[in-house]
Design goal:
The protein is an alpha+beta fold and 161 residues long. It has one domain. Helices cover 48% and strands 17% of the residues.
Amino acid sequence: MKKLLSCLLAAVLLLSMVSCVGTSYKTDVAVDELALNAAPKLIGGVVYRAAATNYFDDYFAMPDGIEDFTVRITGDTGNLDEFGIFHVPAGREKEMTGLLQGYLAARLERNEEFYNSYIPEEVVKLRSAEVKVFGSYIVYAILSDDNSTILFSAIEEELTA
């Protein structure tokens, strides 16, 4: 019985490892196209506009070679909804992920008290902000949990289709 259980467990582990290896992502999709296709799927009818290319200047210097990116924000000062998509050269995924995680942490640290004073219900979005990697695309979201899930699923679907 123990041998059978051990063999069964080994087979399950082997299958789970094989299924994790197989994800292959496209590398030729424009970030604006990804953003334009994903934004309408988000709940709440929020209108997103492209932020200026110097949006991160107060937080970090954009690394050389990372030119294809978009950040989408709302024009509503009572709403922290924001997401960004970066297409990075191979091997630079970890660097960009770290910069974006640092941005999210610094944004929370610098602004939490201020946001709590007038939009406390929105602060939870910043506290639970996420960064995900889809091949050479790095995506971050300052959104509700539901909208984060929708955004990441929409991006992954488009990059794996």
